[in-house]
Amino acid sequence: MTAPHDAQARRAIAPVICYPVETLPAPDMALLTAARADLVKTSETLIPARDAACFTVPAGHFFRITSVQGPQVGDLNLWNANDLNERFYSGKTRALHGTHITTGDRMWSSFPALRPMATITHDTLGWYGIDDFGGSVHDVIGTRCDPYTHNLLSGGQYHHCCHSNLTRALAAQLKLPLDQAETFVHDVLNVFMCTGFTRDTGQYFMKASPVRPGDYLEFFAEIDLLGCLSACPGGDCSAEHSSDAAACHPLLVETFAAKPGALDAWQPPASNSYDRSHGPG
Question: Which of 27, 81, 105, 235 could form a disulfide with 248 if both were Cys (CB 3.0 to 4.6 A apart)?
Answer without folding.
Answer: 235
